[in-house]
Amino acid sequence: MSGGSATDEFSVLVLASDLGVDARPFLSTQTHGEEQESWHDCAQHLSSDEDFSDLDLLHFFRLEGSDNYGNRIFRIVGKFYPATIVSAERLKRYVYHKICSELPDGPFCIVYMHSTVQKEDNSPGLTILRWIYEEMPSDIKDRLQTVYFVHPGLRSRLVIATLGRFFLSGGLYWKIKYVSRLQYLWDDIKKGQVEIPEFVKSHDDVLEHRPLTDYGIEPDPFHMNEMPSSAYSFAKYDGRWSSRDYNYES
């Protein structure tokens, strides 16, 4: 084109159309680049008067004890997370606020409880999680040792096994440890170091009596092992939040 510089650079990114993946986290380099610069400084990234008390009351993300290897534990309860009303941007700020204000120096781990998670209500989407993780400072990512994935279910295993390597960095992908029953969690974490909600214990009891449900062999009429469908839920709420932002600006 006339007026263009011969030294102009461009790149092409091709995504398969049938994956239902929101490509904006990959394409918005300018916006994410600006956020990346401020992500490394708590004072710059967070507003001093920002109130997260409403999210704290939900108890979906909080610091607890330590595992058997001395790693501090961040417990995440998927069922407690209201994905339909919390924006991706606010979730990112909240996660960073918790890490900056509560996590002491040293290694840490995550215990994520997927028990009875519903794809319509509790999943922010895989690309949003990837976006949050990738924008963390490298030292924090290095300090994360293990992600204990409690009650993963068949669908979540399949999604992560088939698409996880593409949408999660290698550093995170290889840190995921599946924990199909609470009894296996106690091999790495002493009882009392992490609080287990009653519904997680009840879910565990149900799975003990229906072990084949984990493998999709036994029917799952109560949808205990629901996992977001790869057809539309990788960042389904992200688009909905974006449209709301546009409406506010108009």
Walk me through this protein's architecture.
With 250 residues, the chain is α/β, with parallel strands linked by helices. The chain has one domain: Phosphatidylinositol Transfer Protein Sec14p. Helices cover 41% and strands 12% of the residues. The chain has twelve helices and five strands. The protein has helices at 24-27, 29-39, 42-45, 53-56, 88-102, 126-134, 138-143, 153-167, 170-173, 182-185, 198-209, 236-249, and strands at 61-66, 72-77, 108-113, 144-150, 176-179. The chain has a five-stranded mixed sheet. Strand 2, helix 5 (88-102) and strand 3 form a beta-alpha-beta unit. The two termini are 34 Å apart. Mean pLDDT is 74; it is low at 10-41 and 219-250. It comes from Acacia crassicarpa. Pfam families: CRAL_TRIO_2 (PF13716). Residues 54-205 form the CRAL-TRIO domain. This is CRAL-TRIO domain-containing protein. InterPro entries: CRAL-TRIO_dom (IPR001251), CRAL-TRIO_dom_sf (IPR036865).
Keywords:
41% helix; alpha/beta; 12 helices; disordered C terminus; 12% strand; Phosphatidylinositol Transfer Protein Sec14p; 250 residues; 5-stranded mixed beta sheet
Name of the CATH class: Alpha Beta
CATH architecture: 3-Layer(aba) Sandwich
Largest sheet: 5 strands, mixed
Overall domain count: 1
Protein name: CRAL-TRIO domain-containing protein
Pfam families: CRAL_TRIO_2
Domain CRAL-TRIO: 54-205
Organism: Acacia crassicarpa
